[in-house]
Q: What sequence folds into this?
């Protein structure tokens, strides 16, 4: 670290003078830096967003990869088309039709380097500086970062246990319309949201699509966690209710196979996909082909459907333990969401506690979390935090929550 | 195709109204579309830019991949850091020190999704709209596309058999300085250039670095083909002569291992790498880890150094046959470069022939090439073309060049 800083400081070249205006604005997150340090210590980190490596179907991947390198090495190791590896695109279209009732004939598939790349591509092809886009409050941190580069005007809509408050969205749409402003798109992590853990209800999903028609906007539905359901009944994705191609659906293999492959996909109207495909050409030519081939066989040979229940079985007790521990240890005045799936619980502390300031104390007590502030585009909520329950084993989750509760109690005393 | 167009036309949503200004400007290349059709026909295509799959070290990759999935699956299938898989970054730094005499202590390594992603990242962190950047005439097509998105003012410098005309660059720098304009960076494919096949001489490399100091600019050295030398003596990369960190070196495994892994790297001053790393975070979080792990073992265990001579041995006869066939069949007035390595020969026809118009005729005669126009940022040269000699077997190269020569002769008659 010291060596690096010395390097950074030294030398006769004024590197900052070469950076673009937008690059000068880019800053590493302080919280991220702090959490990096935590990872190598004895602190119990509930801060991460990683799937548990125990859920990776390693034996299946070994078998599939060996088969691919035996039978399809010439294709799997070569450049592919920008739109993606055709057998995978077909397998995904079929899978989404079967699983989500989204007709294959209505969507085109583009494979991407994880759904993060889809967010950047959407920013690139949709957002002009000043364009109004709607996100949830709170919303996925890296979506804010991806969109922010393109200088939109963010509007954020509060959530409750049924997801985005569509009634408030409608009010806002009407208000903006009166101001002569058009909303270009609404971004939602519809199921087991990151960071809040909540799921948009069926009724709201349908209503959101109606509003998209009425107010002429696009919906970006980000679905990374939707297969990780531990209780309750599955709800079809918003895309299922989309008649006219207004919903851009983002899927990923990061939580149902392995994130290290960096394979995600976009399912959307061909006209939107075509533009994203052209934009992607100059960004990375194509998504890694070997990873796409592995994902293809994983879906095509039925491993995906067979493996999902195993992931669910592995994570469910972790979610249960976290919710139980919160119930057991947290003092009055603290509330949290009760996710039916996904990876995160969202905790709200009494007003007056700033979770960003509290983090250092928590770390000194041996537990880490992500302060909620950065999940709000306007950074206007200080008393929230995100807890992850997929990466750390049950006993550590319990102990981590206990330590966190102690920290909170001490902070409460100061109020 | 027809079905897709029908889909594109139909529907009540005016998708174009959602696109950003920059997205509306993005167009698919007509030539690319034509060449796509060619790929499935009997036409001999000298248009591609693909390595031959016969050069992929499939058995080594099988072995390495099995080992990785046996011993390191938890890491190789997990999210990695944005900067890249540390063992690979170290192995590359060591390899570059040994092979190119670039001290490890002077560079930081960032791994990327193929060097194409590095071009986009460089555009993102360096180019403000209107910034002057210098490229070669002709230059790598996809670099133009990557940089163009960020709205630079392109200045292009002609080349000869020793690469970029550094004397003309100096004149231009002086002229721009007098106009109060600063050149921010010079982009060069220094060795076996794409598309021209030529290599910048040792003397010019040194002079370019001096000029960078004198006129205060950065150099982006793109080195995808530098290991593919079939004759002549190796020349150190420009980065070798860089004292102060002005050279950003781009490397890739696409031509020395397999492009389907999409693994490239940037070697540059830590201050520049840090900014690119932050920019990459919102673009794709990290480069695919499995591919990075494969590349790591490939370098670390010495396979890379062992395999390069085999690739060279495979391509050399193809280059030789292409040069012989050009000599044998091309009419007077046609000239071409004599590359000592790489993948491409650059052909210049007599003035008055437009290779873009000639392409359809060539295809009807059973041969395809890439018209040179698109490799010039100002699209001001019509009588050039790029021929690839790595993908097609020797006998087809000979036949392809013969067909091409016939096409050219017919065109010449019309002049």
A:
């Amino acid at each position: 670290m010291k060596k690096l800083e010395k390097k950074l400081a030294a030398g006769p070249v004024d590197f900052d003078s070469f950076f673009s205006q937008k690059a000068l604005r880019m800053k590493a997150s302080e919280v991220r830096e702090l959490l990096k340090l935590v990872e190598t210590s004895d602190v119990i980190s509930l801060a991460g967003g990683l799937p548990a490596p125990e859920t990776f179907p390693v034996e299946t991947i070994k078998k599939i990869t060996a088969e691919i390198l035996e039978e399809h090495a010439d294709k799997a190791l070569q450049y592919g088309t920008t739109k993606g590896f055709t057998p995978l695109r077909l397998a995904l279209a079929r899978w989404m039709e079967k699983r989500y009732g989204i007709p294959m004939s209505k969507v085109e598939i583009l494979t991407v380097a994880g759904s993060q790349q889809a967010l950047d591509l959407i920013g690139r092809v949709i957002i002009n500086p000043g364009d109004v886009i709607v996100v949830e409050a709170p919303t996925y941190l890296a979506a804010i970062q991806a969109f922010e580069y393109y200088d939109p005007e963010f509007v954020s809509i509060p959530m409750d246990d049924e997801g985005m408050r569509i009634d408030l969205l409608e009010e806002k749409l009407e208000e903006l319309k009166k101001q002569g402003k058009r909303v270009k798109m609404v971004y939602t992590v519809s199921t087991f949201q990151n960071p809040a853990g909540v799921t948009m209800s069926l009724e709201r999903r349908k209503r959101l699509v109606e509003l998209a028609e009425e107010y002429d906007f696009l919906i970006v539905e980000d679905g990374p966690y939707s297969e990780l359901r531990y209780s309750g009944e599955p709800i079809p994705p918003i895309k299922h209710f989309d008649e006219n191609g207004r919903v851009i659906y983002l899927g990923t293999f990061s939580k149902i196979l392995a994130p290290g492959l960096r394979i995600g996909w976009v399912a959307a109207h061909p006209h939107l996909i075509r533009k994203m495909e052209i934009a992607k050409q100059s960004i990375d030519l194509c998504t890694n082909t070997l990873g796409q081939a592995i994902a293809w066989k994983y879906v095509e040979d039925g491993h995906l459907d067979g493996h999902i229940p195993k992931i669910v079985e592995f994570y469910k007790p972790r979610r249960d333990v976290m919710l139980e521990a919160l119930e057991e240890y947290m003092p009055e005045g603290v509330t949290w969401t009760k996710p039916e799936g996904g990876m995160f619980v969202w905790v709200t502390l009494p007003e007056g506690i700033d979770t960003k300031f509290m983090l250092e104390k928590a770390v000194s007590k041996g537990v880490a979390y992500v302060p909620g502030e950065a999940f709000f585009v306007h950074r206007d909520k200080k008393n929230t935090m995100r807890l992850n329950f997929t990466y750390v084993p049950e006993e550590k989750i319990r102990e981590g929550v206990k330590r966190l509760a102690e920290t909170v109690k001490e902070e409460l005393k100061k109020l």
Chain B has two domains: 15-45+306-414, 78-305. Chain B touches chain A through 87 residues (CB under 8 Å).
